[in-house]
User: What shape does this take?
Amino acid sequence: MKSNQPEQPKDMQELRQSLGRLEQRLQGVAADMERTQIAEYVKLLNRPWTLIWKNMLSGTARGVGIAIGFTFFAATILYVLRILGALNLPIIGDYIADIVRIVQIQLEGKTY
Assistant: This one.
């Protein structure tokens, strides 16, 4: 019959290796949680007025950005249409003239 004493150091060594791997994995999980800033998110959820204020500011900034972007886009389109209208191209010029005519009729309050 064999004694269990030679196996104990081997089991202890495997246990230490296993615990070492577990510790490394836990440190990795802790580092990942720090990178995702979960604590700050939970703190923000526990303060609803701060959350509302930050969402209000971000929504306002987004709305202003959209308005500025659309204005720039529309001005660019109108500039290009003005240049194309000045070239008196047969097809495009007639199309732009139709658009101008429709807009003028709508401004006068008449239906076309």
Notes: Residues 48-86 form the longest helix (39 residues). DSSP finds four helices and no strands in the chain. The radius of gyration is 35 Å. The mean pLDDT is 84.
